[in-house]
Amino acid sequence: MSNRDDIVSKLKASGVTPTTQRVEIAQILFARPQHLSAEQILKMVNQESSSTASKATIYNTLGLFAKKGLVKEVIVDPSKVFYDSNVSKHFHFYNIDSGELTDIPADAIHIDKLPNLPQGTESSGLEVIVRIKNS
Amino acid sequence: MSNRDDIVSKLKASGVTPTTQRVEIAQILFARPQHLSAEQILKMVNQESSSTASKATIYNTLGLFAKKGLVKEVIVDPSKVFYDSNVSKHFHFYNIDSGELTDIPADAIHIDKLPNLPQGTESSGLEVIVRIKNS
DNA sequence: TTATCCTGTTAGACAAAGTCTAGAAAACAA
DNA sequence: TTGTTTTCTAGACTTTGTCTAACAGGATAA
Ligand SMILES: [Mn+2]
Ligand SMILES: [Mn+2]
Ligand SMILES: [Zn+2]
Ligand SMILES: [Zn+2]
Fold first, then answer.
1. In total, how many domains does chain B have?
2. Measured between CB atoms, which of A109, A115, A122 is closest to B115?
3. Does at least one atom of strand C sit less than 7 Å from the CB of B55?
4. Is any Cβ of chain B less than 8 angstroms from the Cβ of A87?
5. Which end of chain A lies in a sparser environment, N or C, as judged by fewer CB atoms within 10 Å?
6. pTM over 0.70
7. Which domain holds residue B44?
8. What is the mean pLDDT of chain A?
């Protein structure tokens, strides 16, 4: 998924017009499963890449990707959102000392008995976060 | 737990000097199990109360209460932290449409098989968030 | 071709949450 | 009381993220 044509196809398949900026951002994100903040992506686009993108475009694009299901927002740190390029079911360790976010495979946690949702609502995602600290 | 003396005892028991401002904030928080943001508490202290407190004191106090285990920070909304006056084990629904945070009793979810923690780390809390939306 | 339209990008102003600083006020100890 | 420490405070500051209004550039119509 690091090939430029694959990225373009992936965006098209999700109904996202593959502009220069979006393809740049997607190439960074989809190079491998990872957790990046908007600020990190902004820096990466404007350092390692040929083309550039503004802050507004970074946020617009990440919001669009999230809406289209291409990335998942992970909210574990009050100071910034992480964008996760792995959208398959999995959970997270969050190291509160280092700020490091790491994956827990879906099959490493088993949840039986989920509660009934409140009236008039439907599920929009299940999150499990194991906060850890250095010992 | 709405009695002023009880609040003072509770703070002392946790090693927190019961100053005027801390007792005010604690009275609001511990009146019942609830989820409040720093801004909400700031407003409540300066409207419904005899004494007042500054923004810095609200944040200092909430940080202190969290460190002493009197409240639990709940991070589900990227724009603000919720302070939970219920520190016993339980989980949360977060309605992304309304911003409402509600409790899931501990016994409504059963998790067996928790993953091994990464080397050199220890657990600091397990969070389960069921994101919901209005249907 | 040229005008018009539409979508996306942009700089930078703006908003909101939270942190920090330096001085004032309380609380405390002797 | 006097000296010492802790707490409180206003407001400047930082950071993340949003908004606006202008602009670019490709598609399309005439
Ligand atoms: Mn924020
Ligand atoms: Mn509960
Ligand atoms: Zn992940
Ligand atoms: Zn709760």
1. 2
2. A109
3. yes
4. no
5. C
6. yes
7. 4-70
8. 95
